[in-house]
Every structure is written in structure tokens, then in C-alpha cells.
Amino acid sequence: MIGAVIGYASAMSSHLEQQAKKSLGQHFLRDFSAIRRIVSAIPEGATAIEIGPGPGALTESLLKRVSHLTVIEMDNRFAAQWQGEAEENPALSVIHGDVMQELDGAIVSCAPQWIAGNLPYNISGPLTAKLAGFSLSGGMVLMYQREVAERIASEPGSKVYGGLSVLVRHYYDVRRLLTLPPGAFSPPPKVHSAVILMTPHGKTPPCSYESLQKAVRQGFAHRRKTIANNFRGDLSAEQFESIGIDPRKRPEQLDYDAWSRITLALSRRD
Ligand SMILES: C[S@@+](CC[C@H](N)C(=O)[O-])C[C@H]1O[C@@H](n2cnc3c(N)ncnc32)[C@H](O)[C@@H]1O
Predict the structure, then answer these.
(1) Binding residues for S-adenosyl-L-methionine, per the UniProt record (predicted)?
(2) How many angstroms separate the alpha carbon of residue 153 from the centre of ligand 1?
């Protein structure tokens, strides 16, 4: 571990820090206890994908822990760095590209048990909506801007409960692992960050992820309206009552089970 820490510290030269690209959400993690906690959430010998390795804060430790790691990186500099390392290390594969485009193919070809990453905050919402649709046997350990992490981990009735909170529960139990101040990163972001751990709950979802996504998008389109209003023309008050849901409720009051019943009711009428 100490070797990895020194290796990483030297790799992350001040040159790179100065060249951190804002457009790619580059804030490099430098809190070694956080790195340890994130990496140790993944069992030894597992297979994993890391999103956005950058100069390698997590990557060095992940490579020591897992049996195979695929990294997906958009920045040419870091992709080239890891491609060089992959030539020497058969336990490492590199995908140079945009994770939003590459993820589906990477999951099919690598069949990872785990996904890890200190996510670029500018795409973390849509990326999580994509990630949550994959049923991984291990789980996901991901760093977010604290407000996004709060949304993901929130329960029905909370002001920040929304579409993402529902979607991640299709396959996973969700828990906040740790919170970090801006100073844990270089350069420091303007916001606090938090790590979320998602592990499979093991229940078979009653509806498809795609149909749930569609229902949630429509149902949360107007948060302040009742669900009867958001689904006007699609589901009647009687249909809501027949699935045990009060049509006067607002979208943020409904738990995952209620959303899956709405999804099934919508698909029955298609
Ligand atoms: C917050 S930094 C994390 C870097 C490193 N893992 C760490 O913790 O220090 C986000 C990383 O994701 C990469 N990245 C940003 N947008 C990306 C995208 N669309 N696809 C793949 N990688 C991306 C950035 O280049 C950067 O390396």
C-alpha cells in the first residue's frame, strides 16, 4: 500500500494538477484513507471496471486488489499512460473513449463484477441512470458531488428524492460510504463529495429497467403535481386505486415498489 501511495503521489505531478481539465471534471483524489475505503469495498480477486482513472489515485490500488481491471478514460494523456502500462500488465485493459458511448460494449465484453470510479461530476446523473440498468453480481462504488449522492441515497418523502433514487433501487441496495471535503482533491472542487456503495438486493425486479425509466421520467416531469396529473390520459384514478396507490400523491412520496406497480400498469395498457 505504501508503495502504491508513493507511486501515485509521484505520478500526480504538479504539472498534471495545473493541467487538470475542467471540461472533463478532473479533480484528482489525494486522500489515501478514502482511497483505501473505496478499494476495500471490492472483494479481493474480483473483476472490475474503473471509470475515469486519470493519473491513477484508485487505479494503482485497484490493480493490487482485483484479478482484472478495465479502465475507461477519455483524456488522451491518461489513456496513453494506462495503455503503456497495459502492455506490461495482462490484468489491465484500457478503453480510450467516452464512457457514455463505451459502457454498454465494455460491460458486455468484460462482464465485470464491480464498477468503481471517482466520477466526472458533469455527467454523473445521466451516467448513473445508465449504470443502474446493469445487474452486476458485485456492485458499484462511486464518488459523486455530495448533493447528487444525497439524491441517489434519499428515501421517499425527502425533498431531494427523485428519479435517480428510484432507478438505482431496481437492482441495488444503496448506502453512503463516506463524505469528503474539497481539500481531499487536487485541484479542489467547489463542492463536497460523497461515495455511494450499491450492492445487489437479489430480488427479481417486477418490470424491465427501460420501462421503469420511462415511467419515472414521466412521473417526475412535474414534481409539484400529483401523479394523477403527471399520468393524465395514461392512467385513471381508478387504475391507481386498483394498484393500491392514492392518485393524489406526489411523485416524491412513492417508493420503488409503487413505481414498479405504475410501470406494470402502464405496460398493460400499451
Ligand atoms: C474526477 S476525475 C477522477 C480521476 C481519478 N480517478 C482520481 O480519482 O483522481 C474524473 C476522470 O474521468 C475522466 N473523464 C471525464 N469525462 C469522461 C468521459 N466522458 N468518459 C471517460 N472518462 C471521462 C477524466 O479525464 C478524469 O480522469
Answers:
(1) 27, 29, 52, 73, 98, 118
(2) 22
